[in-house]
Amino acid sequence: MATRRVSARLTGAVLAALVGGGLGAVALTPASAGAAAPVAAAVTTSVVTKAAAASCATGKYQKKVEGYLKQLGGYGTVTVDGKQSTADCAAIVKFQKRFGIQPAKGLAGPTTYDVAKRLAATKTSACKPKKKGITFCVDLTNQTTWVMKNGKLHTKPTVTRTGYAGYRTPAGTFSINKRTKKEWSDPYEVWLPYWQRFIGGRGFHQTTTYIHDKWRGSHGCVNLLQSDAKLYYSIGKIGMTVKVFGRRPGT
């Protein structure tokens, strides 16, 4: 009986702490202690859920980002209403983590909006890949890239950063002609992880700086996030086709 009284007092204290002054303190008897446990759990879940939603701020581009994420799919349930919810926040955080957007806290800010918009605007059919084999596609206009296999989408579009003004990445059809897991760049004195060269001194490689820093750009290479650079390297082989089309804004 002593155990049941302690349990009742603890449950009542938990409920009182959770509901604060809204419902008032809850007095429980030993007989009601068992029934109160599910109530306490329900109130706890409700409070935690509301706290999580409150901690995730609503960004300037909330509704637009919700719309793009719903179009892209794969990030969870999103309600396109411009109001931040726990589910919206979780989806935005997942999207931000996937594409290396910092900080990944669910705020629909300008970088998240820009990345989502570019990915949503990407038309994979515009690459016009080879009907057989692998084709690496680079859309300079939207600053996105993806892989086609036998004329069909093999990897979904992801973000890239190509050459900025004065170092424009050329459009055209090329072939991978050199591959090394870690290439040293003499001109810029930096290591280029997962290097796959396709024309001159330009190729795919993991970015060495924050990929969403547009003003820096690259010196003509196709910068990738680490996960994408590793994936591209695992797919790539000497002689595979690379199609680069469009033009990066401002170049």
TrEMBL record:
Keywords: Cell shape, Cell wall biogenesis/degradation, Hydrolase, Peptidoglycan synthesis, Signal, Transferase. PROSITE patterns: LD_TPASE. Coiled coil: none annotated. GO terms for cellular component: extracellular region. The active site is at H205, C221. Residues 134-245 form the L,D-TPase catalytic domain. One of its GO terms (molecular function) is peptidoglycan L,D-transpeptidase activity. Pfam families: YkuD. One of its GO terms (biological process) is peptidoglycan-protein cross-linking. InterPro entries: LD-transpeptidase, LD_TPept_cat_dom, PGBD-like_sf, Transpep_catalytic_dom. Residues 1-35 form the signal peptide. Pathway: Cell wall biogenesis; peptidoglycan biosynthesis. This is Peptidoglycan hydrolase-like protein with peptidoglycan-binding domain. It comes from Actinoplanes campanulatus.
